[in-house]
Each structure stands twice: as structure tokens, then as C-alpha cells.
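so ive been stuck on this for like two days lol. basically i have the seq below and the ligand is nicotinamide-adenine-dinucleotide, smiles is in there too. i just want the complex predicted, nothing fancy, no docking runs or whatever. if the output looks off dont worry ill sanity check it later, just need somthing to start from for the group meeting slides
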Amino acid sequence: MKISVIGMGYAGAVTSACLAELGHYVTGYDIDHRRINSLNSFKPQIFEPGLEKLIEKNCEIKRLKFQHVDDSDLDLGEITIITVGTPSDPNGSPNLEYIWKSVEWATEHLQQNSILLMRSTVQPGTGDLISTRFCENKNINYISCPEFLKEGEAVSDFFTPDRIIIGGNNSDAIEKVVDLHSGISSPIIKTKIIAAEMIKFASNAFLATKISFINEMANFCEAWGADVDDVKEGLGLDHRIGKSFLNAGVGFGGSCLPKETRAFTSLASNYGIKSNLLESVLEVNEYQSQIPFRIIKDVFADMNNVKVGILGMSFKPNTDDIRESPSIKIAQTLSKLGCQVSCFDPVSNQKSEEKLGSTVKFETSIENLTTNKNIILLMTPWEIILNSNWHQIFESMIEPKILFDGRNSLDPAIMKNIGFNYIGVGRGISSSHLDHLSW
Ligand SMILES: NC(=O)c1ccc[n+]([C@@H]2O[C@H](COP(=O)([O-])OP(=O)(O)OC[C@H]3O[C@@H](n4cnc5c(N)ncnc54)[C@H](O)[C@@H]3O)[C@@H](O)[C@H]2O)c1
């Protein structure tokens, strides 16, 4: 099939390359010339394992190309997929500015009987509105087919999704979108447009809830002396609960979970609903992201003299995405309070520097980052960070040599043995460390 994809960010670049890999002829469009140029030279501006190779291979066999929306030779093909951003407004409600512009542009150029497929995450009700306002009078079929990829594993997720959700009003259009996915053997759920939109929002809100739940349990574990990792094991083996998304830590970030959970809470009042549960999920998440601040406040008499090294800036490993990353939030808090903050990330130093400016220092190696620091905050468990020489790091630090493991990804016994004042999240051993520390 001939396909066009509008919006070449994380979701769009992966969708375009993977659809080309399935055998379709794909053109990716964007309003940003730099993005288009870098994609056409096989160097996407985003870091996603496996993506670069897939782009190069499919461009070379002429199944994939990238164009600016203002180019003259437009042919959007049988299906146009929207993957533009849907950020939050300051009050938390979804900002659909990019959606309206891209839909307007696409429906102006689409042929009759073609399909407009929404892969961006839009609030329930948006699809029916787009369908009546932009599609019906032009005989264009609207389909909601939400994106569920996980950054860092997006390419493999595309080919082996847990499910494919196709929401639409026209059965021929739905079957065509089923064909678009041929080659992928995953369950396909066909629904109304609004149900497809709701499934996407509810999935993210549930995952956010699971993370905040285990984080709240971790705080109890901390107080009562249990290790939350043992609790996770016992909880997760109950198949009604499951182990995934039960890792305690400094909370969730990224472009999806915070945004969609916030959207529910901010939209609730429009419908006379009180979203008590999801408001608490966000509150717990905010509280978790400030754990390092509370540790530093408890241990050090004067924030101004504290030398802090932050290891990992992206919201999780294997991506350069720093949107709503707990590392960014804590770097901002600590530098405002006068701490001397340095940061390191294997791929997102530059993006983080653009966001944080000169308030913090950036280091290009783990060794430089950890040298002469009172406290190290391990915020993102990149392999390269976990496999560091921890003996050397210990030697390079200055007292009280605190290692805060914000993702519980190191072995506390080994770290304590090296000599660190190790603090995890809900590992039941941290409070005793804090008791004897005062700097
Ligand atoms: N990033 C993820 O992991 C992920 C996962 C699931 C769903 N989603 C959803 O996918 C959507 C896109 O997210 P993203 O992270 O890829 O966003 P992004 O901000 O990385 O990329 C959006 C792209 O759209 C382009 N754009 C904006 N307006 C345009 C227009 N009128 N025409 C053409 N291009 C335009 C921008 O220049 C940018 O390149 C969002 O709704 C998001 O919630 C993202």
C-alpha cells in the first residue's frame, strides 16, 4: 500500500520505518526541515535502538522517503497516518493544536475514499469530531489506531504488539487497516472510534497507577524495614497482578504516562467527575521525584556546599527522551536550592543542556561526573552506568559518599561492601543509614 505519515517524531519515525519494513511504500512528512533532512541522510534526530538501520535499509530500496509538508509533489496515498505531538496545556488539558493543523492539511490533500488514521493520542471524542468536521463531506474514512510503543523498545514493539486496536465506523476501512498490519500476528480488536481512544488513555492511566501504587508501598517498606523488591516478587507472582510496572523508584516520566493521567484529571470536571484516584497517582509521582531532595535536606546542614552528580537524564534507558524526566525535575530543584549539580547521560546530555541551561554542569564521562561528589543520584539505569567500576567511583567521591539508587537497580549488599552509604527506594535499609549521617 502507499502510505503517508504526518509528524516525524518518536512515534512517526518508527511507524514510517516499520511500515516500510512490512513492505508498504511510505512517505514521512514534517513541518521541520531539519528533521526531514536528517531522516533523509539516515540520521534521525531521536535515539531509538534499531531505527537508524531500518531507515537506511528502506530508503535505499526506495520504500521509504521523507518530505516537507510544503513540497509540491504531494501524494498521500491510500492511508494517511497522523503522528503529530499532543502536549499538555499548563492546566493539564490536552493541547490539540498540532492535530487540527495536520488534519486540516491532510484532508485537503487526501483522495476520496482514502483513510485518515489517527495514531497520536487524542482525548476520547476527538475522532468523532474530526470525522464529522473534516472527513464525512469529503468521503474520507476516519480510523483510530492508537500507538502503544515503548520508547527504547519501539521497533520490536511495532512488530510484536500485545494488541492492535482499530476503531472506526466503516467496515471496509477497518479491514483495510487490518491489511495494513498483515505480517504482524497479534490480536486485533475492532471497536467504535471512541472506545479505541478510551483504551489508549485507560491503558496509560492504569500503568501510571501501578507505578504509583508500588511507590507508595515502597514508602511503607522504607518505614517498616521491608525490601520492596521482595514485596514486588510476592505481589507479581499473583497472575491477577503481574510483575511488570512494579518497579519502585523516583516515579514515571516521558511523553505519555504523565500527560494522559493529567488529561483525565483536568478533563474530569468538564463532565462532573471527580478523579480522586488519578489525582493521587500524580501526587505520589511528584513526591517520589523529590526523594533525593529530602535525603540531601536530611543529611547536609547547608545545601550550598553539596556536590551532587546525577547519573542518567532520560526518563528511562535506551531513549534520549527527557520529557517530564524525574532527573530534569530534581536537577532543577537542587540547583535552585544552591547545590552544585553535575549531570551525565550517555545520549541526552545535549537535549538536557538545552532544557536546563547553565544552571547545572554537564560531564562527558561517568568518571568525571562522579569525581569529588558528596552524593551520586543514579536516576536512569543505563547498562553503561550499571556496569561502571563502582570501586573506582567510590574512591573518586568525597565524604559522605552517598549513592542514591533511584531505580533499585544495584545490589545493596555489594554497594555497602564497597563502602558507599547506599540508599535505595523502599529497600528497608535506607533509614538506618540516614540516622548516623549528618554533614
Ligand atoms: N513517544 C512515544 O513513545 C509515544 C508512544 C505512544 C503514543 N505516542 C503519541 O504519539 C504522538 C506523537 O508523539 P511523539 O513523541 O512522536 O511526538 P514528537 O513531539 O516527538 O513529534 C511530533 C512531530 O510532529 C511534527 N509536527 C507537528 N505539527 C505538524 C504538522 N502540522 N504537520 C507535520 N508535522 C507536524 C513535529 O515537527 C514533530 O516532528 C503523541 O500524541 C503521543 O502521545 C507517543
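The chain has a mean pLDDT of 95. Residues 229 and 427 are 7 Å apart (CA to CA).
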